[in-house]
């Protein structure tokens, strides 16, 4: 399939799959072209400031109201959104590490049924909080679509590529790319064929606000994730009648299902700025120290979902890409740290960032706020003998990402007890750290 895109983060776009399908001048003509129906999708309140007002007009074959009644959906009990509920979650103050979550090999599981929640905070009815999920899937969604009323999905494939069909068009998401599907948009996920028919990835869901580019401050007008590199779909409609299309909706943390007698992907034209989009990590322009010192991980922020507190995020989405390290006389692995923010780290493609050999692709790590963490003993020993006047290259193929949040994160009982992927001893690699202190020698390592 030939995927076509439009470029530019947050732009006002327009697209039509048939010539003249987009009404001229007004949004709601009495007779839209081709006998279509006008429908507005709002991602912000009507009176939001102009620079934060999100909406798109869609011109559809069927109004969205043409569907049956909603009933509870029982296909996935492990997709959690209420982190105040102790029946689904539990608390631990320890650092947590999960080996790559297993993809079932004995049954077919589509994208939605394969989503399992790992941790999160808050709940969606007050538009406050977030959730972090993993998906492990083996089959396409076929005549099935998903719509999330609770939050925006940031989807990161780690194993296998995603062929995502949305109301606005199609997106192909490869490993080393991600996409964002804002709340309220129908989409379905099919998978590009792999010999193993196994697909795995992670999802960051935010209940309040939307993702945006971070402020660059003294960096200036350019750098990090540049707006021109974010890609949006073009209109691509599907006109299918007399079928049973199952629609799964997440609402207030619960799943419901309804049916349509047609495809929900019947949007022939649209215009606006509330849309799904994708990004390729290879386009990220990192910023780093060029003489000495270790800059904070915030310098690697790709997107942020801001809170009401300036400089503090509901979620920062951070990526540690291939890059050069050129800081003299500097200990370059991430230093020992206690952070007021929670950190969830995922190895997507490689384990080679600063020699984290125990961090294989698919592995996930949760550092709770104010819980100490830092490099392993073998990383320390390797770093102590590195010649810091020589440039180091973090190689291509490396992709480690981090979700950082102001919230304290509660883990689900599925992640702690059912998944069987949690590492029992995450502290052993710190217990053998060499103590170098010598009060008689100030220059012990010089």
UniProtKB/TrEMBL annotation:
Q: Which UniProt keywords apply?
A: Dioxygenase, Iron, Metal-binding, Oxidoreductase, Phenylalanine catabolism, Tyrosine catabolism
Locate the Homogentisate 1,2-dioxygenase N-terminal domain: which residues?
4-280
Instruction: Kindly give the InterPro entries that the UniProt entry links to this protein.
Output: HgmA_C, HgmA_N, Homogentis_dOase, RmlC-like_jellyroll, RmlC_Cupin_sf
Catalytic machinery residues = 294 (proton acceptor)
Q: Which cofactor does it need?
A: Fe cation
Entry EC no(s): 1.13.11.5
Residues bound to homogentisate are 373
Iron as UniProt keyword: yes
Against Gene3D superfamilies, the record matches this protein to: Jelly Rolls
Might you report a single GO cellular component term? cytoplasm
Recorded hits in SUPFAM superfamilies, A to Z, give:
RmlC-like cupins (SSF51182)
Q: State the similarity comment.
A: Belongs to the homogentisate dioxygenase family.
Supply the name of the protein: homogentisate 1,2-dioxygenase
Source organism phylogeny: Eukaryota, Fungi, Fungi incertae sedis, Zoopagomycota, Kickxellomycotina
